[in-house]
Amino acid sequence: MRHVWPLGLALLAGAVTGSALIAVPAAAVSGGAPAADGSYGFVAKIVMDGRACTGALINREWAITAASCFPENPQGGTPARATTVTVGRTNLAGTTGHVARVRNLVVRTDRNLALAQLDTLIPDVTPIPLATALPETGASVRVAGYGRTATEWVPDQLRTAAFSVASTAATTLAITGDNGVDTCKGDAGGPAFTETGGQPQLVGISSTSWHHGCLAVTETRQGSTETRVDDLADWIRQITYATDISLTGNRVARVQNGSAYLKDGDAAWSLQWEGHGSPVTKVRVDGSRVGVLLANGDLWVKDDAVPGLGWLSEHDAITDFALSGQRIAVVGNGIVYLKDGNLQGNWTTPWEGQGGPVTKVRVDGSRIGVLVTGNVVWVRDDAEPALGWTAEADATTAFDLAGNRIGIVQAGQCLVKIGNLQGTWTDLGQ
Q: What are the b/e assignments for 79-92, b being 16+ CB within 10 Å?
């Protein structure tokens, strides 16, 4: 086995004994050069209650690092120790950049890797993109870290050094430092990246090392192991990208990594539904109500105007739903169900498949619309009950309702009807 010492966590205060060097995870670049001001701003200094690691900003809200930096959180979640991330500040004695708290961890199960969700967006530090291919053996990569050096226990300056790829495996790559350098304690989670045309691309994060050349280490063997990230683009996108959004007034709700979040006005995002049991697939918000559709087909709705009720299980076996004021419309087994009024009220069935099974439902004010198999849109206006259901358009791939307007997508074109259900369509073009 090539490496026997985990890179470990750098201790922020006091002398470190020889046994501590081996017993805890982490490392810093032993012979690296200080990074120039303004360069590599995506590299993060991660501090958790007296310990430290390195990481990298991968988008405005997430940093990537080593899971071994969080031994108390093997399953992820809220950090057991208060944790901060500093980015855009290669000299920690300065005041540039940003300091954010970590509010959530997502741990990868097949390798030493964790994603850290920040409690604030980082607007002006360019994240590092993931490489799309693994560098070949012998290729040059650069490693950056805030860990120990050959002469300092806890340096304030980011250091970087050139390494060469020695070998690759399914989830790791082994690298050897040029000119005898190695990674040290405090470098765990630090980025290893290629630089093509001056543009960095992340290929790995520091995991283990022999700590060759690091202060108080006499080991003569050399080499570091990086956790691969080039093959994780889809997994990272699933966790860090929003997959659904809903708006009402000054409220916005989103789905991300199977959980639902709500932003009310200028307030910070708040977790509304934790999707660990069954992930959220759709979120809708209208007025004071918030609804979530889970992957298992369960629909839950709450009304913030009636906080004592909390979340109520409204229906199961649901494939689509919509909210509008005091109305909830759902699709189950091709049938539409409608509840008007109290969340604990009764359901009616305004559509029972008379024009075909329903695939999507929309509701706004007194109107309810359905898209049925065969791509026909039907709309009913309860303010004009004599009209009943009206077939509005065929060959429709998407539709929506807003007040007295109906919008559809038909043959790639956007059309809108304003006013009476029996009115004419206006082609909005593209």
A: beeebbbbbbbbbb
48 and 142 part of one domain: yes
Same domain assignment for residues 257 and 137: no
* Cα–Cα–Cα angle for 338, 343, 349, rounded to 5 degrees: 15
- Which residues are CB-neighbours of 199 under 8 A, at least 6 positions away? none
DSSP code of residue 221: -
Contact 68, 7 (CB under 8 A): yes
Please say whether the dihedral angle defined by the alpha carbons of residues 298, 303, 306 and 310, taken in this order, is positive or negative.
positive
Q: Which of 123, 111, 56 is nearest to 86 (CA)?
A: 56
- Do 247 and 351 fall into the same domain? yes
Provide the 10 A C-beta neighbour count for residue 108: 19
Domain boundary among 240, 267, 292: 240
- Spatial separation of the C-alpha atoms in residues 3 and 183, rounded to whole Å: 12
Residue 342 gets the label, from left (phi > 0), alpha (psi -120 to 50) or beta, of beta
Burial class (CB in 10 A: 0-12, 13-18, 19+), 231: middle
Contact 372, 357 (CB under 8 A): yes
Residue 403: per-residue pLDDT: 94
Q: Which structural domain range is residue 425 located in?
A: 241-429
Q: Which of 240, 270, 297 is the last residue of a domain?
A: 240
Q: For the chain, what is the domain count? A: 2
**Which residues, listed in sequence order, are joined to residue 312 by a DSSP beta bridge?**
301
CATH of residue 279's domain is 2.130.10.30
Query: Which class for 403: exposed (0-12), middle (13-18), buried (19 or more C-beta within 10 A)?
Result: exposed
CATH number of the domain where residue 217 is located: 2.40.10.10
Identify whether residues 218 and 324 lie together within a single domain.
Answer: no
| Structure token digits, residue 187 | 């470098």
* DSSP code, position 157: B
Q: Looking at the structure, do residues 202 and 304 belong to the same domain, yes or no?
A: no
Model pTM? 0.75
Name the residue with tokens 């799309």: 132
Q: Which residues pair with 270 in a beta bridge?
A: 262
pLDDT digits (tens, 9 = 90+) for 213-246: 788 777 778 889 999 999 999 999 989 999 999 9
Domain co-membership, 210 together with 288: no
Are 213 and 254 members of one domain? no
Output DSSP code: residue 50.
T
pLDDT tens digit string along 302-314?
A: 999 999 999 999 9
**Do 251 and 114 share a structural domain?**
no
Structure confidence at residue 58 (pLDDT): 97
